[in-house]
Amino acid sequence: MDARALRSRVARLLPLLAAAAGIGSLVLLALSVENSAAFGRSRLWIVSGNAFAVLVLAWLLARKLWQLIRDYRNHVPGSRLTMRTVGIFGALVAAPLLVVYVFSLDFLNRGIDSWFQIEIRQGLNDALVLSRSTLDLRRREQLQRTEAAARDVASLSGTMLLSRLDQLRRTMEVSEVVVYDSTGRPLAVSSDASQPLIPAAPPRDVLLQLARGRDYMSLQPEAGGRYRIVTATTIYAAVGAPQRRYLLVNYNVPAELSRLADAVQDAYTNYGNLSELREPLIISFKLALTLVLLLTMLAAIYGAIFSAQRLVRPVQDLIAGTRAVGKGDFGTRLALPSRDEMGFLVHSFNDMTKRLRRASEEAEASKRVIDSERERLAVILSRLSSGVLVVDEHLRLLSANDAAGAILGWQPEEYRGHLLSELAGGSALLRQFLAELQERLASGRSEWREQLDLNVDGVRRVLLWACTMLPKGVDEGGVVIVFDDITNLLTAQRNAAWGEVARRLAHEIKNPLTPIQLSAERLRRKLRSGLTSENAQLLDRATHTIVQQVDAMQQMVNAFSEYARAPEMCLTTFPLNQLVVEVADLYRLQDQRAQIRLDLDPRLGTIEADRGRLRQVLANLVSNALHAISGMENGVVEISTAAMKPAAGDQPADAQLLVSDNGPGFSAEVLQHAFEPYVTSKARGTGLGLAIVKRIVEEHAGQVEAGNRPQGGAQVRVTLPLHAERRTLEARRERA
Amino acid sequence: MMSVRRWLLGLCLSAVTAVAAADGALDGRLTIDTANARFNAGVVELNAQVTYPLTEQIRAALQDGITLTFELEVVISRPRRLWWNADVVILDLQRDLSYHVISERYLLRGPTGAEQESFPTLTAALESLGKIERLPVAVEAQMGGEGPWEIAMRAGVRRGHIPDALRTLLFWRDDWHRTSEWYTWTLER
Questions:
Q1: Model-level pTM?
Q2: Do A704 and A697 meet the contact criterion of CB atoms below 8 Å apart?
Q3: Does pLDDT of B41 surpass 70?
Q4: CA nearest A416: which of A378, A452, A446, A444?
Q5: Could you say which of A33, A44, A220 has the minimum Cβ distance to residue B168?
Q6: What is the C-alpha to C-alpha distance for residues B162 and B170, in angstroms, rounded to an integer?
Q7: Which residues pair with B51 in a beta bridge?
Q8: How many pairs of residues across A and B have Cβ atoms under 8 Å apart?
Q9: Which positions ≥6 away from A590 have C-beta within 8 Å?
Q10: What percent of chain B has a predicted confidence (pLDDT) above 90?
Q11: How far apart are CA A587 and CA B131, in angstroms?
């Protein structure tokens, strides 16, 4: 058992011990008042028991008071109410107790003083003096009679003396007449039946007094309230008598006189006993009253504290329960203290918490449903390829999905809760988008669905966006904007359309070209022999022109056919740098003047791709670049490669191919539609070169960008995944 | 906490000791000088000499009318092994001493009032009280066994003739109550 448990057990046992001690001492007190000796033996136990009970009561009360004060200082709920209740109870108990105490003390003083008034003492003393005087007179008379008797028997002895003593006893009406010698030995006796047959020796004080030559007379009380007068005198014999003799006579005091004297004696004794008790009685009564007052007050205050705490405890429970409910604990249940009004209040509280708990559970369930729906919506929004923005009526961004960030090139999570005007620091595309949005909203528009053309650094981006108002009552209203980047879609549609055109052109034009060429050749052979030299030359020129143009058209049709062909790739793994070198060497052989510089990244390894098509890409780009610098004395074509690392990981994931020249560069008009078919700055170009490049790059899940270098000249940047798996992922992402 | 407990314990003991050690009017010698007992014809007879206090305060109080009760407690017990003694006889002898103011003599009375002696002086009365000769305290049948027995005797004096209810009230400051130490000896057959 630890110290705390021991203290708790002692604290519980102490009041029981104190009560037992108090009751035990009371029982001892009740028993001992019947027997003074028993009281003497148990006095220590009585005092100890009472002192123990008082001390324990005082200790318990001190503990209660200290606990009450500590709770009051610590602002424990209900402590003030307890303190007030204790104060009221204490005052209600203390006031009448004090009044009774004061009046009791006054009554004690006056009452006990009245018992010992001076008149009573004086009366007793007067009665005593009177009694003494009466009895003293009687004693003297009896002594004179004894002296006369002594003279009468002075000359007698032997039987004569006995006979005379009998005669004297009868005539004097006394109980006993004795003659002693000087040593106290009885010589002759005459006594009635009440006296012993052989008289006792005279008391020593009688003999002493007689030896001094003085007579003896004494009033002696006897059992039963009777009195006896004892007188003794010396019997003076004739000269020559052998020894001195004494005569002792016992006289009975009359009964009436004895009764009166005894009454005076009893009154005097009783009064003396009581008067001795006066001061102790007053003090004892005061102490007893004070002790009773203290005990009563201590017990009353302890009872007041106990009752107040019992009364306040349900209120404290209610306060604690209310606080718990305030903190959201609706499972709080209070024990019913009773079936009174407090019990009804507690029952109502429990009923309230029960309802609150049920409502809370329902609200929680609804919240879970809403959260689930919100999570579902968030998942749907995050999976959407369309961008979604939710803006409140104050143009504050409430929500935006990942696609919105991907399309506009920003991080929506960082700007949630910000005003749209605070988002202007993002990408140029975002700035243009927000400008368009704010312009529309500022003009009062809240519902639209239209196409939005944006131009960022010469690159055209086409968005399809729609805006609609959120109904009032859902959050704070606002608008939701849904948009899609349809640039690629439009390009794809355009490409598909151009592919279809190319396929039809190839189909419709290619077929008659061969007959035309053959017919022209046949015409020249058949007709040339019958014509003049001049006409033959004309025919030769005409048929040559026809054949040449048909060849040109054949090449064009082949180009169209190539553009429209089905995307079937033959993937192999080969070093990209080696392919670049091969293509560069081929063009250097074709044109000795061509200045082609290579800047190849040695880290770049192999690439998994269709080698033939990549060769076509390189050929188109180098051809375009060489064409751009044709006629320039210091024209240079630069081809560089680089291994691109992803954000996480050490292995290169992409290959970058940059083909640039220092020619005139792209015009703004051409740059805007650089990868569209039939867009060319060359006089005799088909306008399919960059379109085919873009198509092949996209077939490899790569990206191609065209632009102008700051120092002048055009550049085309091609980014290709190195591995087929990554290409597949990119393709999936694209499709998503 | 420990010091508080010690303080409370000390206070309690002091209060009890103060009450128990109250003294005053009965100052003076209260001792049992000698005591013995012997079997005489099947009766245990007690002989003792007790000195009771004699002060002017006592004399004055007696002459003012109060009564003193002189007590003699005799306990005869039989020792037991590994246990408390068994009480054989417990006697409580009381005699009242008062001053008869009319006769100016000191009276000694038994508890019933049937036995009464008077003395001209207080000294003579106290000497008579203190001299105990051949007082029968038990008969052989009461003693049981062959002995030995332990006899304890204590003398006391207190104010007599006080109503018991008042005596209860005076329990904490009764100066007129005093007892001697126990005087013990062994009685053998």
A1: 0.48
A2: yes
A3: yes
A4: A378
A5: A33
A6: 10
A7: B31
A8: 125
A9: none
A10: 34
A11: 161
